[in-house]
Amino acid sequence: MNNNSSQNNTIIDETLRLAKKLIAIQSTENNKTGIEEIISLTENQLSGYRTRRFVSNGKPGLLIQNTNPETKHFKIILNTHLDVVPGQKNQFVPHISEGKLFGRGAYDMKAAAAVMIILFKELANTLSYPLGLQVLSDEELGGMDGTHYQITQGIRANFAIAGECGSNLRIVHEAKARLVVKLKAAGKSSHSAYPWDGDNAILRLMQALQNILQYYPYPKKEEYKTTVNVTHVDTKNYETSETAYNRTPAYCEALLDVRYVPDDKSIIVDKLKTLLSQNVTMEILHNTIPHQTDRTNSYIKLLQKTCEEVLNKKIELIQQHATSDIRHFSGVGNDGIEFGPVGAGQHQDNEWVDIKSLEDYYHILKNFLLTIQ
């Protein structure tokens, strides 16, 4: 075995050991012990480097840097999150099969995080420019207490890389924004045997939903355009603790998860308002900005060239449907991309990441970071 092969085996073995440790920790929103355990594990992995702990609304996050004195401005920031969506107990028992690492968070994004942690330790003391590593615990909740909070504290990057799922060793330079709205329909109660005495709020809401979904129909195939998904419908039609089946409901509400393309940023809210029916109002619960970095960005070009040298094939620049923490950097004019290993099954029961792609991912990021002046 030559030295390169031996080194590669050592790197992938170390990556898998760390990834398995991370996957085994149930770092879900409702498990504060698990969140603290995984953040502490990362602190221990990176002991000896200047580390700042940020806490917002009880959610911890780390920023590790390679330079002294302390700085808020980095040339490159590697952005990673270690929180995961809930899963079955067996999903927190990582296993390897047919060249894939399985487990909750394997793809989203604990294996990529393991690569970034190992790479930071290897290169931190050799790079002449400020390199930061963010380790967050609330990306699945929107990142407001993690990446966004660090940015409000002045953290900036010339270029940020989030090791997110979905890119599959392609470069995501643009992604949709997320808008969550609550529709609230008001009506009038009556005995359900006498519907003419009431005004059914469910029907009011149904008309509004019909108007919206006619304008934004559910796509039958993948398209990069604004989508509206109805994710919750409820009516407060109750008598004490039991549902009143014989009463016309006076109130009904629905939640819409809207993913809009950057071109719709200035019009989406007003457009939805025009589609509401009588006695239906709209409340904005969450609205983020889209992620956009120009495809001609010099860091993107360098990363694309590095990918093609390692993988020996052309690398796509793509647009993404889901949000990531990179959008928070876009909000302050910092450039960035999503770039992670190959896998599938995020938020599903059979989540996995391709082990060979972790090795490729390591070499791409390493060569990229070493090439930067």
Task: Give descriptors for this structure.
373 residues; alpha+beta; Aminopeptidase; Alpha-Beta Plaits; six-stranded mixed beta sheet; four-stranded antiparallel beta sheet; 32% helix
Helix content: 25-40%
Shape: elongated
How many strands, which pairing sense, and closed or not: the largest β-sheet? 6 strands, mixed
What structural class should be given to the helix and strand makeup? alpha+beta
What is the CATH superfamily of the largest domain? Zn peptidases
- Report the oligomer: single chain
Number of domains: 2
CATH topology label of the largest domain: Aminopeptidase
Q: How big a fraction of the residues is strand?
A: 25-35%
Order of helices and strands: HHEEEEEHEHEEEEHEEEEEHEEHEHEEEH
Q: How far is the first residue's CA from the last residue's CA?
A: 33 Å
Account of the protein in words:
The chain is α+β, with helices and mostly antiparallel strands. The chain folds into two domains: 3-175 and 290-371, Aminopeptidase (3-Layer(aba) Sandwich), CATH 3.40.630; 177-287, Alpha-Beta Plaits, CATH 3.30.70.360. The protein is built from nine helices and 21 strands. It has helices at residues 3-24, 32-45, 106-123, 147-152, 201-215, 268-274, 298-311, 326-330, 355-371; strands at 50-56, 59-65, 73-81, 95-97, 100-102, 131-136, 156-162, 171-175, 177-186, 190-191, 227-234, 238-239, 242-243, 247-248, 251-260, 280-287, 291-292, 317-320, 335-338, 343-344, 352-354. The protein has a six-stranded mixed beta sheet. β1 and β2 form a beta hairpin. The chain is elongated. It starts with a helix and ends with a helix.
